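Shape matters. Shown next:

___
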Amino acid sequence: MVISRTAADKWFDACMYVILSLLLLAVLYPLYFVVIASISNPDLVNVGDVALFPKGITLEGYRRIFGDASIWLGYRNSLIYTVLGTCLNVILTLTAGYALSRSDLAGRGIFMLVIVFTMFFSGGLIPSYLLIKSLGMLNTIWVMILPNAVSAYNIIIARTFFQSTMPAELLEAAKVDGCSNTRFFLQIVIPVSLPIVAVMVLFSAVGHWNSYFQALIYLKEDSLQPLQIILRKILISNEASENMVDGLVNQADVVRMAETMKYGVIIVSSLPVLVLYPFLQKYFIKGVMIGSLKG
């Protein structure tokens, strides 16, 4: 049966296409501008001549960025923090979410109350700093990993996902066959939960990759600084390293090069997340919808 579309339906569709196209343009154009500005002549960018296409194309900014050791050191540190932190986040979040989804867990309501309580109340910055210091984590890589090892919001999403997709009958059938809880979780639950795993990996990886406040407060050693701190120095404090401005004597040339490198560093720091997302997209949409809306 073919349902005929009225004129009102067609007008509605046209309006939606226009609105969504404008929203897409508003989201994509800033990213596109950063890309073309990073390879354009900084003088033309500053006077507003670069709008749709790059002008005076130059890769000098990227050459200086990738030739600077601090950028590579920041990349290495951020990768270490992101990989270790994401692995720990995913393991703890999935195990906690699954345990809290089980109706036979004694006192799970109390556990959930305690977890949700932490979403609204915290000790504050000074008590947190004193705690980190007393634990001996200042100026160590663990201060970037352990304090944010668990997210209450992610645990709630994981718990809701498991409640919606793991029927109790499946666990009962597995127990009849002699399957333990650990084996059931590892061999049955995890393989069929790739959507929520992808959601947790993406949430955790993006959070760790973009994290800079903890490093700003707890890390004083330059050798431990993540890429985002180096990016902050260039974007906000205009503190480009000596290698980045090597050979530039005139202060005006230094300022021009700093402007070009600002755009280039944004692209360089965003690449890992942009590369990761397409591989997780097909799982991400399904997982976040089931995990957040059902239950």
Q: What stands out?
A: The first helix runs from residue 7 to 38.
